[in-house]
Amino acid sequence: MTSHRHKAVKTTLDNYLDRISALPDEILIHILSFLSTKIAARTSVLSTRWRYLFASIPDIDFEFELKHYHYCKDKTLIENAHSWSFYAFIFLASKIFMLRNAAPIRKFKLSLGALWGSLVSVDEWFQSALDILISAALSSKVQELKIFIGNSNYTIPLTTVGIFTSKTLVHLELHQHEHLDLDLPNPVFLPNLKVLNMQDVNIVDDSLQRLIKGSPLLEELCLGFSCLVDEDKDNNVQVIHFSSPSIKKLIIQLWRGDCTIVLESNNLESLRYIVLGCDSEPQAIINAPNLKSLAYYAPPVGVNFSQNLNSLVEATIAVGRLNYQITSQNVIEHLNRVQGVKSLCLGEHILEALCNSQDLLPTFKNLTSLGLQSDGSFEDIDHFLYWKTLPALFEKAPKLEAFVFHLIQDSASEDMEFECLFLVAFPICCIKQLKEIEFKSFEKNEYEFKLVEYFLRNGTALKKMTVGKHLMPSVCKRILSFEKCSEDCQIVLDEAKKVLQLDL
């Protein structure tokens, strides 16, 4: 009887596999496209019917993973094991390209040494093999190319394989763990490139200008860079130009170096400017009259506009992680420029600087949403000073309907003292005008629960309360137990694995 059951199960499985095998190649390839290239290749053992179909998937994702050998203390054996793993990785990748027979590639992703924080040793042979893989993808008319290099001594080939002379690339992302010199071929020719994201690069000479000039259709540019210092020059301030008639979205992340950034664009609609680490105060001169969205995490004294920002709809102004000295005069000047926005988010240092200059605040006649942004600074913040400024902002925003907490700075104060702070920051007269309140992040501190409860209990006009991300059920249950002043208020909780939308 047992053998009959096994036979019945086997027959059922065979029939199930036969049904899959009967599907057209196009459907099988579409199914396999949802898997990583490595996993898709493993499915070739399931049936001879689709043994090599994985090689026809238009998207290729090569990710090299290093295993940890905790039980082995022999360094030589571990290095040999890593080398053999790398050989197997290169062999599989080469075989896939051979089976594809130069068929067009839509997306190609190469991720090397980014996992586990391990060091991948790449010798000359491996460097050449990886270069050949990238070159093969470019020869296959790839449209989207992503290369992520973690803790590895492999260097992305900028001039040898034709990355910056590709006629088919539409989307390009390059991430190098160690800073990569942006030494590009001359000329750069990327006639169809629309999205470019490069991180951890060093600006060399006029490479950036040639890159922008050689990408006439570029719409989105995200650049994380450092400025190289020429020790032979008396003036080490480097001038970086971002001038393009096509770019609509620009993200600038400055890691280090003394430089002046000059931005000129009539078509730019979105700008994020972030200073992550500099010895001195970098300067940014911005001429973008049609800007709609602006966010900068940098000292306000170093951000200069050569025109009015009449088209601006949303703005974020924060100092960032660096402890620059800012004055109320700097802040007021910038708030005057953005007073026509509908959505405004301010950092803690900005609010703190405004504490004694509340009478100078402009009127935000169009403002409907106000947000509080943590600067992420390691410097201690006087919570009383920056929370004390909020009522004055409420008074200067007659149309304000929504308030957003991007992050509530972890306070060293006792819960009772913190509760007194938000009673000062959000008097009942201010809360009554709010229709929406959102907590982007919720750390489950007791004062956060009290703040949510305070808003629900006193928000007579409140229509929607959104709290946190990936909340535990116990947290959701406690929030839902709070008494509400407004019966129409909808509580939206992002519970772990699912989102609850409850009208109570």
From TrEMBL:
It comes from the Eukaryota. CDD domains: F-box_AtFBL13-like (cd22160). SUPFAM superfamilies: F-box domain, RNI-like. Gene3D superfamilies: 1.20.1280.50, Ribonuclease Inhibitor. InterPro entries: F-box-like_dom_sf, F-box_AtFBL13-like, F-box_dom, FBD, FBL13/AtMIF1-like, LRR_dom_sf, LRR_FXL15/At3g58940/PEG3-like. Pfam families: F-box, FBD, LRR_At5g56370. This is F-box domain-containing protein. Residues 17-65 form the F-box domain.
